Amino acid sequence: MISLAALLVYSTPVALAALGETVNQKAGSLNIGIEGVMLSGAYFGMVAALATGSPGLGLVVGAVFGLAFSILQALFTVALSVDQVVVGTALNLLALGATGTLFRARFGESGALLSVPTLSKFGGVDAVVILTLALVPAVALLLFRTRWGLAVRAAGEYPEAVEASGYSVDRLRLAALLVGGAMAGLAGAYLAVGIAGSFATNMTAGRGFIAIAMVTFGRWNPFWTFGACLLVGALDSLQYVFQAKGIGIAFQALIALPYIVALLVLLGVGRGSAAPAALGRPFRRSA
C-alpha cells in the first residue's frame, strides 16, 4: 500500500489548485483556465529552478506566473464581462501552445536528459505539502470567519447586495482570482520541481479540470475538498503501487481512474450541489 507521505505528495498539486478554486468560486468566478495556469506555472517554475539551481525559486516563479494569468483573466471576465468559460478555454489553449512551443525550442522534442533540482523531503514530505495542510484550515478561516470572507461569499451569492453595502464586487472577484491563480501556479510548479523533477508537454494532464470537479465534490468547503483531493491522489498513485507489485493491470486503465472519478462527480454529485448562486455570471452595475 502507498504510504501516507506519498499520498500527501501525490494529492498536493490538485489540492492546492482546488483550494484556490474554492476561493474563486465562492466569489462567483469560474476559472476554467486553471489548467493553463498550472501548466504555465510548471514550465516557468522548471525553467527558473533549472537556471538557478533553486527549486524554491522555481515555486515562487510558478506562483508569479499564476498571478499574471489571473490578472489577464480578470481583465476579460471582471473588467470587460466576457464569458468566463470562453476566456478560460482560450487561456488553456494559450498556455498549452506557448509552453509546448517554448519547451521544444529550448530543449528539443523530448527534452532528453532534462533534470530539474527538486525539493528536499523530510519524512517523505516537503515544505509545499506542509503548506498545503496549513492552507486547508486557513482558507476555511478566511472564507467563513472574516469580514472579507463574508463579502467574498456574498459576491458569489448576491453581488447586488454587496455593491449596496459599499464593497466592490469587481475588487473582491479580482482578489479571489489572484489568490486562486497564485495557488494554481504554485501547484503546477510543484509538479515540476516537487514531484517529476522535469517537465513534459501538457504535463498537468487535466489536473486543473479535476481540481474544479473536486471543488464541486467538496461542496465548496475546504476540508471536504481536500478530502476529495486525497481520494484523487490515492487513485493517481495506484499505478505506481501496482507496477511495483507486478499486478497485471493495464497502466492506461490506472492512469484513467482519477479522470473517471472526476467525470462521475460532475454527473452525479454536481447535480444536487448548491453552487454559489452567481457563479459564472458577470456582474454589471445597474444604472
Explain the overall architecture.
With 287 residues, this protein is mainly α. 72% of the residues lie in helices and 0% in strands. It has 11 helices and no strands. Helix 1 runs antiparallel to helix 10. The longest helix is centred in the middle third of the chain and has 28 residues. The radius of gyration is 19 Å and the shape is globular. The model has no long low-confidence stretch (mean pLDDT 88).
The percent range for strand residues is: under 5%
For this structure, the quaternary state is: single chain
**Annotation field: number of helices:** 11
Give the low-pLDDT segments.
Answer: none
| Helical content band | over 70%
Alpha carbon gyration radius? 19 Å
List the helices and strands in order.
HHHHHHHHHHH
Morphology call: globular
How far is the N terminus from the C terminus?
Answer: 61 Å
